[in-house]
Amino acid sequence: MSDIKLAPPPPGVTGSGFFATTLDKAVGLARANSLWPLPFATSCCGIEFMATMGATYDLARFGAERPSFSPRQSDMLLVMGTIAKKMGPVLKQVYIQMAEPRWVIAVGACASSGGIFDTYSVLQGIDEVIPVDVYVPGCPPRPEAILDGVMRLQDIVRNESVRRRETEEYKALLESYGIHKND
Ligand code: SF4
């Protein structure tokens, strides 16, 4: 007997011999359960992510066990650690190099707000340079909190319209960060 649990199907209309749903829901289901993380770890919060990837917490359960250090082959940027202002342009470059659709989680107090480092050299939150979808509180957040952040992101991904990336609002969001759609 297998312990493997399948993701529940998207809401739809069933009948004998057929199942109908919308493209948005089917694509959302597939995307949410196959997020490929890019760990951008600069300090202590990165260690918590390593634990999250390990056997006890097992991020693989969410279809996200394939860390990528190539921005082109990842769609979930996890920023973990203190980001110095000098590092800001590097982080932005990595974000720009990721293929659409892409999502961002700020893991921990430093990535979310600069944390305890309220100083001239530290970025006071990565949302000063790139848009963020989910913030995970804590210094450091426990692996459970990181998993919760990934699950909140899955909720966003599951419910995102396949057309969102083509909208004027999304274009305006990127442009507010000085990022152009075809960069
Ligand atoms: S939030 Fe705390 S644990 Fe995480 S990188 Fe900053 S100082 Fe380290």
Q: How are the strands of the biggest sheet laid out side by side?
A: 3-4-5-6
Order of helices and strands: EEHEHEHEHEHH
Name given to the CATH architecture:
3-Layer(aba) Sandwich
The count of domains is 1
> Structural class of the secondary elements?
alpha/beta
- What's the overall average pLDDT, rounded? 93
Ligands and ions found:
iron/sulfur cluster
Proportion in helices: 25-40%
Total number of beta strands: 6
Could you tell me the CATH topology label.
Rossmann fold
Give the N-terminus to C-terminus distance in angstroms: 50 Å
Overall outline: globular
CATH class: Alpha Beta
Number of helices: 6
Largest sheet: 4 strands, parallel
* Low-pLDDT residue spans: none
Which keywords apply here?
183 residues, alpha/beta, Rossmann fold, four-stranded parallel sheet, two-stranded antiparallel ribbon, binds iron/sulfur cluster
Describe this structure in words.
The chain is an alpha/beta fold. The protein has a single domain (37-176), classed as Rossmann fold (3-Layer(aba) Sandwich). Helix content is 33%, strand content 13%. It has 6 helices and 6 strands. It has helices at 23-32, 45-53, 88-97, 108-113, 143-158, 168-176; strands at 13-15, 18-20, 37-41, 76-80, 103-107, 134-136. The strands form 2 sheets. The protein has a 4-stranded parallel sheet with strand order 3-4-5-6. The longest helix is centred in the last third of the chain and has 16 residues, at 143-158. The N and C termini lie far apart (50 Å). Residues 43-45, 81-82, 108-110, 115, 139-140 line the site of iron/sulfur cluster. Residues 43-45, 81-82, 108-110, 115, 139-140 line the site of iron/sulfur cluster (SF4). This is NADH-quinone oxidoreductase subunit B.
